[in-house]
Amino acid sequence: MPLKKIRVIQEERPKVAVCGAPVGIYMETDGVMVIRTAEIRSSDGTVSRPSENILREGDYITKVNGQSIRSKQDLIDAVKVSNGSPVCLSLLRDGETIEVQVTPQKSQDGTCRLGAWVRDNMQGIGTLTFVEPDGTFAALGHGISDIDTGKMLQLNGGELYLTQILSVIPGKAGVPGELQGVIHYEEKNRIGSVAENTIYGIHGVLDREKSSALPLTVTEIAYRQEIETGPATVRMCVDNTVEEYEAEITEIDLGSENTNKNFVLEITDQRLLQKTGGIVQGNSGSPVLQNGRLIGAITHVFVNHPEKGYGVFAENMLARN
Fold it and tell me: What is the domain extent for residue 166?
């Protein structure tokens, strides 16, 4: 019986430049996000809620009477000129575009308002995980969600900045710790642009010249089946210096899909435990290495056990699309 010939092509293992440095993140939403509806009190004491049962938390207002809305001020100006006449709002709701009508009401100062709390941007500190050869970066390891609604933010773009860590609030059981720092929103400190917000983190393009001071180390990516329980290291920045600290991989879920909780790790390095108590807010995106390869990044802390947390596979962050 003749044997069938097959051709085997060996692919080169992906390599990335691993980081671990904290970065400042500024992102603008795609439209104006509704946090919740609110009441309006007029000059005669009458109370109304014009947006109640019309707008929902997590809606994105993208247009008012056909006019594009990109910021809170755009929305305020568009509603103000309505002079109390009904306005048509174009909304992005659960991935679909719909139109609703709301009649603004005059508040005590005579300004027409919709009766809704909204947000048009977010900012914070996270950790840069790695940079690909073409300059594409990955950070955080998880998507950015709105603090009030809990829903992942729809982005219209954003920027990445150098940041400085000023202090660390150590974590303890029931109370997450936190990296406290300052972000200087100046052009000279801008090191890249943010293009995507996904369940596997934020992604964009790094400015090679401005980011030259980042501590980058070229490292191979480990495939999920190569990860094993046992010793590992994490790259973290606590005192404005990126260092590797000892950790332990305790659980691995090879079958997990569409999640950023692929494995569980525990910080074992006493140096880090004394400084931070374990994993703190701002550590999301910290690279996790094993056997000289990048296996993933920290994504969440166990609130009642701050020395433990979840991680996402590096290959998921790399193949996010």
Answer: 15-27+121-318
Q: Which is the catalytic residue, given 59, 284, 286, 300?
A: 284
Please give the sequence-ordered ranges of beta strands (E in DSSP) within 12-132, or none if there are none.
Answer: 15-18, 22-37, 40-41, 47-48, 60-64, 67-68, 87-93, 96-102, 105-106, 112-113, 116-131
CB atoms within 10 A of CB 71: 16
Q: Which of 290, 271, 157 is nearest to 231 (CA)?
A: 290
Options 51, 59, 120, 142, the catalytic residue: 142
Among 271, 272, 252, 270, CA closest to 262: 252
Q: Give me the number of domains the chain comprises.
A: 2
What is the C-alpha R_g of the chain?
Answer: 23
Confidence of residue 109 (pLDDT cuts 50, 70, 90): confident
Of 51, 269, 286, 300, the catalytic one is 269
Average pLDDT over residues 280-288: 95
Provide φ and ψ at 314, rounded to 5°. Answer: -60, -40
Enter the pTM of the model. 0.85
Residue 299 within any structural domain of the chain? yes
User: Has 269 been annotated as catalytic?
Assistant: yes
Residue-wise pLDDT for 38-76, tens only, equals: 999 987 888 999 999 999 998 999 999 999 998 999 999
Encode pLDDT of 229-240 as tens digits.
999 999 999 888
Q: 239: how many CB neighbours lie within 10 A of its CB?
A: 9
Is 62 domain-assigned?
yes
